[in-house]
């Protein structure tokens, strides 16, 4: 059992340390930074702060999220330069954080048919210059449409078994993980050309809808965040605002709807059971993500 660590400020409290110890966590996939094309050139953003590798006795795997648009309209030389820059910054952060050695790098990118050539070239170049084992994430649609969207030139991938719907477009279903939708995407999972590990969600968020139907997403949010707030519980995770107030820097007016989406242990168990029927290898589960706000709600030993 492994975890992602996705917060920008590295701060692990005693409860989180106990989770790592009790569950005998071996690997932490730690987000070092994101890359986005904010103007003309790709740039790092959201670089992790205060990371100290000595805090947890685990194997750290530096992880980098890269937006799909970053790979649009880049020349081959620009792609190779991007790989060199990513590798350089990873090593700089590792050195500054007393991460003396690491054997793997993971790249997280929701690539598409139009960007696969540049993305796959990036992976090949990064693997070559880093001299590390390289893994990458795999979205549900990239499994279902692998013939169109391609298979990365790697031998290790992590299937992200969540984000089954767009949270700003869906109303009734759980946009984090709807098992039936996931099954549809993964009906031919056993045909994927190499072994996979699996990432499962243990996070929650809020979807806020105003009077005009416009939607805002509040990440890292739970029902506890609505305690003592002027809302009415309408059931099924839906709340209605009864008085104007601020919530996570958002100004909410009377009548706004708040939908809090969470993932139950039963949903996780059903998902794992389905994956067991499809994946014949002994896959590792990586939970997204290590945060007391979420880990306290699950008995992960029993999953």
Automatic annotation (TrEMBL):
Top-level taxon in the UniProt lineage: Bacteria
Name of the protein in question: Uncharacterized protein
